[in-house]
Write a structure and sequence with these properties.
Distance between the termini: 95 Å
Shape: globular
Order of helices and strands: HHEEEEEHEEHEHEEEHEEEEHEHEEHHH
Oligomer: single chain
Structural class: alpha+beta
Largest sheet: 9 strands, mixed
Length: 415
């Protein structure tokens, strides 16, 4: 196993290309075509589900004499946040409903593309009271929710009929401009880094493994899902031979969190519960052994493709590898070096084989070969001696043990 060089130019170019393709959940066919072309260019075979979830397979190159050899899966999602037309108002403005879970605070002011059945329109997302010259300080009293927003289409539209004449209908998709900015110091600011930055890191890791022709000890499934932002994600795409699933996604950077934009963030738990003890610690050891900066964290309000796989009933070990990003689900910011570190760790993991030797079999017939989490010292009994209770509550009834004590007083109970 060796730490592989990551082509950061490829990583950055791939990220910008992904950001150029709108892909809110439910409008993902085009980004599926793009990702398939990237896999074709790398010479990695893949298959698609009916809806377009991609499962590529990097075949193992090391011989295996055992009758059963498990596979691993690395999962990232191609879908992003977005919105849908919920209402066409009498003045031609559009009410909208969010696609995915995100605050209307981040939608306000966004430039968008609305996709009709046969064309597209450009527009802006505005608060209902949008002009300070008209509403003065009342603007600052508006609640923060999706009912307080509307889409203004940049066309001659003054009525619902005008909107209908341009083909605008309830249920049309609205994609928010990513508006990426890559700075010379390595910082990247954009909408939709969740999870297009993760996808770019996965493809960069795959390229490093393919280009270097290193040994791959187990089949590795590279899975690109389409519905993570609405909760389903990897529920129906994990094959029965997969023993461990690595989710690749955003790590929210904020006060009180351990995530960082530099290095790799490895959460030990999220809203679905703890990730696998052995797999997470193995990934942390890989970082330590190969000088990859890493950060431990716990996510309180977070779901991912890894947890979706477990919730669907798959008997797999899970872990989550994250690129740290500030302002998640908004104008997110991460760093190119952190994405490169993430790709380095993924390339190491692909070379590492099963985390637990016993996982080579789908079932064990005894606990004899099952793993341990705690060693003998951690399980050693801790004895805490307690005082004699009588000494605490009946000290006068306890006979003295002094050989020179005076004779006991006569019994006077008969008096």
């Amino acid at each position: 196993m060796q730490k592989l060089p990551i082509d950061t130019d490829y990583l950055k170019t791939t990220l910008l290309e992904l950001l150029a393709i709108p892909s809110p959940t439910g409008l993902t066919d085009e980004i599926v075509h793009y990702t398939g072309a990237k896999l074709n260019a790398l010479g990695v075979s893949y298959e698609l589900t009916r809806r377009g979830t991609i499962r590529a397979v990097l075949r193992r190159t090391m011989p295996e004499r055992r009758r059963y050899n498990p596979a691993c899966a690395i999962v990232a999602h191609l879908d992003t946040l977005g919105a849908m037309v919920r209402e066409i108002k009498p003045n031609g403005r559009l009410g909208l409903m969010p696609v995915g879970t995100w605050s209307s605070r981040w939608a306000e002011g966004g430039r968008v593309t609305l996709f009709t059945d046969s064309g597209r329109e450009r527009g802006s997302v505005l608060p209902l009271m949008a002009s300070g010259h008209v509403y003065n300080e009342a603007i600052d009293t508006q609640p923060v929710n999706w009912d307080q927003l509307e889409v203004r289409i940049d066309a001659d539209i003054a009525s619902a009929g005008d909107a209908a004449a341009r083909g605008i209908q309830i249920g049309d998709f609205i994609a928010f401009d990513a508006a990426p900015e890559v700075l010379e110091n390595g910082y990247i600011v954009s909408r939709h880094l969740d999870d297009k930055a993760g996808v770019a890191a996965v493809l960069a890791a795959l390229k490093a493994v393919v280009d270097s022709a290193v040994q791959v000890p187990m089949n590795c499934h590279l899975v690109f899902t389409l519905t993570e932002e609405v909760g389903s994600g990897a529920r129906a795409v994990i094959e029965s031979d997969v023993s461990e699933v690595i989710g690749v996604d955003i790590g929210p950077v904020a006060p009180g969190q351990g995530a960082h934009e530099l290095g790799v963030t490895i959460p030990l738990m999220d809203s679905a519960g703890p990730h696998d003890y052995h797999l997470t610690r193995r990934l942390l050891r890989l970082c330590q052994d190969h000088d990859i900066p890493s950060h431990r964290d716990v996510f309180r309000y977070y779901h991912s493709d890894a947890s979706a796989a477990v919730n669907a009933g798959h008997d797999v070990r899970t872990a989550l590898l994250c690129f740290g990003a500030d302002a998640s689900h908004g104008y997110e910011r991460t760093h190119l070096s952190g994405l490169a570190n993430l790709a380095e760790l993924l390339a190491l993991y692909i070379q590492s084989g099963p985390t637990v030797a016993g996982d080579r079999e789908p079932w064990l017939d005894s606990v004899e070969g099952f793993s341990h989490q705690l060693d003998a010292d951690q399980l050693a009994r801790v004895d805490t001696p307690l005082p004699d209770a009588n000494e605490l509550v009946r000290p006068a009834d306890i006979p003295a043990h002094d050989d020179g004590a005076a004779e006991a007083a006569p019994d006077d109970r008969s008096r």
